[in-house]
Design a protein that fits this description.
Length: 294
């Protein structure tokens, strides 16, 4: 089967690899679309090498392994794998996914759009759970126009939170359209939030690196989480390392079908144009995901 891999000599290439078979507790998915995430771009440049790339996919169940009863061949599904430890990439014609990391796909979007949901949607879901967001609380999202940030805003708004979004001035309409109050990224952003909320926001999620001055916008006893390996002095919280969870994927798909969660597709390319797709996925300011299709 065709698969997208990388090596020191060729950053991204399409090669023939053996088709996987599902082990116990797994489903074999015929991939219809697989997202390219920033971590894919990074690993395509730095390794590990000669492994099929990709963390997330949408497709159709082709076969099920022993002990799997919740799926059957023909089911449209989404799922993701923790690539760094599993070694199973999704950017291939077939991928074996753990049933515990797979869910029925949303019914209201096509496979290319559905493929943008698993990794970033799960990360946003677990970030809000880790922060303990409840109705009426205030949430500040840094990197609000990105995929994780956008999902987090949608989910927090659906939960009844008051959301603020920090992003580039060019993304003001995007952030406002998600239902958040826009704050322009830059040296005046901290002062703007402090002026509007003198007591501070309840919770903060950073999907991009920030400086320590941002601790002053969080109220005493508030919480902070980062998806980029960062903490803030004197603020409870820290780094979130997301993990696949089928029940959360099922809930995310339901949010999509209810119109409460918007999936954003920037571009789709075939495997044969994987190098072009990776170049586009690495472009600064990309909004939505580039997706590969077999």
């Amino acid at each position: 089967m065709k698969a997208v891999t990388s090596s020191p000599s060729t950053a991204v290439s399409v090669v023939d690899v053996p088709q996987p078979q599902p082990s116990a507790g797994q489903v074999l998915v015929r991939v219809a679309a697989a997202g390219i995430n920033p971590i894919d771009v990074d690993t395509s440049r730095s390794g590990p090498w000669n492994r099929t790339l990709g963390w997330e996919a949408a497709g159709v169940v082709d076969a099920v392994g022993q002990g799997v009863h919740e799926f059957r061949p023909g089911d449209a599904v989404i799922g993701w794998t923790y690539w760094l430890s599993s070694g199973r990439g999704t950017q291939a014609e077939y991928v074996a996914l753990d049933a515990s990391a797979t869910a029925k796909a949303p019914r209201t979007v096509d496979a290319a759009h559905a493929a943008t949901l698993p990794l970033n949607g799960t990360t946003a879901w677990q970030a809000l759970a880790g922060l303990g967001i409840t109705a009426g609380e205030s949430l500040l999202v840094v990197g609000a126009a990105g995929s994780i940030g956008g999902f987090a805003i949608d989910l927090a708004v659906a939960q009844g939170a008051e959301v603020w979004g920090v992003a580039s001035p060019a993304d003001a309409d995007v952030v406002a359209g998600l239902g958040a109050r826009f704050v322009a990224r830059g040296h005046t952003a901290v002062a703007e939030v402090r002026a509007a909320r003198p007591l501070g926001v309840d919770k903060m999620l950073a999907t991009a690196r920030i400086d320590d001055a941002w601790r002053h916008v969080i109220r005493p006893g508030g919480r902070f989480l980062s998806t980029v390996g960062q903490s803030l002095p004197e603020v409870e919280g820290g780094f979130l390392n997301a993990h696949p969870d089928a029940s959360q994927l099922t809930a995310l798909a339901a949010h999509v079908d209810r119109g409460e969660l918007r999936v954003r597709l920037a571009e789709r390319q075939t495997f044969d144009h994987a190098a072009t797709a990776y170049a586009h996925a690495s472009a600064p300011g990309l909004r939505g995901r580039v997706v590969l299709t077999p």
